[in-house]
Amino acid sequence: MGARDAVSGQKAWRKGCVTRGSLGRPSRRSGCRCALVDHPTKVAIPCSSSSNQAHSTTRRRRRIHRRLSSPRTASTEVASSTTSVVSRFLGNQDKDLVKGYRIASNYWEGMKKGQPAGYKPVVSQVPNERAPAEASNGAGPDYDVVVCGGNLGIAIALALQNRGHRVLIVERRLLRGRTQEWNASRKECMNLVRAGLLTLEELEDVIISEFNPNRVTFKGGEDVWVSDILNVGVAPDDLVETLKQRFLRNGGKIRELCEFRSATIYDDMAVIKVKDKGAGRGSGAEEVLLDMYDVNKPNAVPTTTTATDASLEGATASDTITCSLVVDCMGHFSPIVKQLRKGAKPESIVLVVGGCVTQGVPKFTTSDILASFTDAERDMQFFWETFPAKEGTTMYMFTYCDADESRVSFEKFLESFLNYLPSYCRERLEAGQEIGIEMSEEDVRAIQADGDEFLDNLKFNRLLFGAFPSYKQCPLNSPFDRLVLVGDSSAVQSPLSFGGFGAMLRHVGRLDEAIHEAIEGSHLKASDLKLVQPYMPGLGTAWLFQKAMGFEPSQMGYDAGYCIPQRKEWTRAHVNRVLKANFAAMKTMEKTVLLSFLQDTILFWPLTRTMFAMTFVDPIAILRVVYLLGPRTLAQWFVHYIMLGLYTLCDFVFGRFRSQTSNFHVRRYMDAWRYGSGADFFEEH
């Protein structure tokens, strides 16, 4: 390609794509053909590989930009542009947000190098010995249960306290929810009422937004609108405070600003060492430094507290606590999880950026559950989620990948988010117009701002930089007695999701009952507690979907000149094509098929029918999935698929007899069949 063609192609690219200085609108259905990761630049660098002169201008633009979208190196001008866009944006945001960005960026780079964080043994077991007399003063354990990590742990703590157990929560920050909504369906939220955690009136009080319909869309495909999926916004601050006050009224104890240090397991109890981070500071205030635990943790990160907080009343200030059972609810970055996984690099990552936008974007009244409007780039397919919120609009861009060193940096990932955001907002407004939602004058002004003005207007009250890990070994079980992991610590959430709230809602009733029966029956050996978090083939089956929605490093075929060879051109549209076939197949079936999939519940018969139908909708796309995944991954997945069918059969045959037995082990197997097959999706509320 000649220099004149290169300049001409660059002008066309700038006209049709979003850059810092131009917010030209791409076609809603065709999407922007260029990768917007390492751009913009003032000189187009011709691609060294030969090009077909018969290719369209769009094809030439795409080849030019592939050179600019280097996954490993960038020109000085490109790097300067990236820094300029990100720096300009961060310069207008809150200081804590900037701290969170730097922490997350450093953590992500360390994870890619195989050094996510150091770990040290924090749990040990002394077999065939009772705890020293001085640990318990000869009076037995201080508590029946100690829950480490309270913002999601408060739910299981309150459920056990309601059953008459003595429960203590140890929380390294304040037990206080964030101000940005958690999204779920009303049906899922009813599990809080069924578990006795909230009344119907209290549930209505903590639901502060509700909206329908909800969209699923992929580039080049039709919009799919559904109702009652992730369509209510729950106020975490109100929810956590309501649960916290009930927990305290029922006799529960809370140690805030108290950090878990270690646990030693004996035959008769667990001895926990903690560090009270808020003690001995005179006024009671503490300067709290942010770390990765906070950045990826779905709650507010307060920086001060007072020693007069009511939740501290009655809680002992001892550095040693004894209990019958330790519940780890400290999330992905729990020190216990680090020990059990031996610091292993995650097999998969959900890379996320976004949050609640309070200024600079339209205030949407409907949601996007899963949306993409661009082709894949740099071995990543970008997806979007959007939810109406009380204070603005919650928007996330995310991708499924691994932690290979070639993966994009957080800086470039954030830049892609900022550059694609105006185009996404326009596409989103146009979709709303198609179903009769009119644009307000404020919405029009938001999308007409130029590049710098758009960045200057953009304000977040919270911005998440997430690298959420997932592992093939899930749920994670403890080899130690008297220790069970729940929530994100156990990796019981779907590998397709990046939040633990939905998994908590789904499993809180099961965990409450299982842990209660374990304590009552003294089933506290590691082999017993393994049944509290059993193997669930639905989670293993979801791995295939996550793998099919991303690429392995270099799988798109970037060469030394950072061009995609012609034989790999199809990979750019591959993920969108597969997902379009998937949803086209599901649309022909009953409503349950689509709704269960969108709620991360994998069911055997709907899955089987969908895969069969996809082979007729787009057989070429399915063959390419087989090619990209490879025989080993498919063989591993097929084992989970067969087990999913077996669990479905076992639940159908034996599940009806669950209420007729009180045997702890039998009931846990029946729970595994029910939840592992997804049959709990059909429970009436």
Q: Overview of this structure, please?
A:
The protein has helices at residues 3-16, 57-68, 76-90, 95-112, 133-136, 153-162, 186-194, 200-206, 236-249, 292-295, 335-341, 410-434, 441-448, 451-457, 501-520, 526-529, 537-548, 571-587, 591-598, 604-617, 619-654, 664-677, and strands spanning 123-125, 143-148, 167-170, 182-184, 207-210, 214-217, 224-226, 232-234, 253-255, 258-265, 270-276, 320-328, 348-359, 367-371, 383-389, 392-401, 459-470, 483-485. With 685 residues, it is α/β, with parallel strands linked by helices. Among the domains are: 3-75, no CATH class; 123-179 and 236-343 and 475-533, 3-Layer(bba) Sandwich (FAD/NAD(P)-binding domain), CATH 3.50.50; 557-682, no CATH class. The strands form three sheets. Strands 1, 2, 3, 9, 10, 11, 12 and 18 form an eight-stranded mixed β-sheet that branches. It has a seven-stranded mixed β-sheet with strand order 7-6-14-15-16-13-17. Strands 4-8-5 form a three-stranded antiparallel β-sheet. Strand 2 (143-148), helix 6 and strand 3 (167-170) form a beta-alpha-beta unit. Residues 1-80, 279-288 and 296-316 have low confidence and may be disordered. Residues 57-69 have a biased composition (Basic residues). Residues 70-79 have a biased composition (Low complexity). The chain crosses the membrane at residues 635-654.
